[in-house]
Amino acid sequence: MDTPEQTLAAWQARATELQQCFRQTGVARPEQIAGKSGLQVFEAMFSGELPAAPIANTLGFVLVETRHGYAAFQGKPQFAHYNPLGTVHGGWIATLLDSAVGCSVHTTLAPGKAYTTLELKVNYVKALTERTPLVRAVGEVIAVGSRVATSEGRLVGPDGTLYAHATTTCLIFDAPPPRAAAA
User: Fold this and answer.
1) How far is CA 144 from each of CA 85, 101, 140, 167, rounded to the nearest angstrom?
2) Is there a smaller number of Cβ atoms within 10 Å at the N or the C end of the chain?
């Protein structure tokens, strides 16, 4: 079992490693993701073939791991994320968890499928401040059907402290086909 210091060092190293992969942000064009499964889309992001989502830069978090039915993001709570009460705004926490639980569903999708969040439920357990060194949101699929998927997630610190947990329900649908190029 790693100490909190070892876990923090490993998380920081992973973020540094990914800086090269995620230098480019943007939105993938439909033709870039056509024919790719959800997991292949993430693999293309990690290889630098596809851009990282712009919101990651805006809110200061990064996708750190995906596999079938699983996604993890991590971020550093900052003063810029504070609410008027002097703690990190619940919206930042919810966004980190929404990313993890939604992307865990995304990893299970076949080529030609897309999803959107129908419902997100977040339970806040402990306040975050800028003194918290780093947090990780881990999402894991509960069930995936042909039209609906559910997932759960936890936001934890490197010492294992639970800050929040969430569940989501996602709608799965056929992705619109890429448009033909204009002549």
Assistant:
1) 39, 12, 11, 14
2) C
| Amino acid identity at 24 | Q
Q: Residue 16 contacts by C-beta under 8 Å, 6 or more apart in sequence? A: none
Q: Return mean pLDDT, the chain.
A: 94
| pTM (predicted TM-score) | 0.93
| Count of CA atoms in the C-beta half-sphere (13 A) of 124 | 13
The full set of domain ranges for the chain reads 4-174
User: What pLDDT score does 94 carry?
Assistant: 98
Mean pLDDT of 16-43: 90
**4-174 CATH fold:** Thiol Ester Dehydrase; Chain A (3.10.129)
Residues 64, 20, 131, 102, CA torsion sign: negative
Instruction: Please tell me the predicted confidence (pLDDT) of residue 179.
Output: 74
Q: How far apart are CA 118 and CA 177, in angstroms?
A: 22
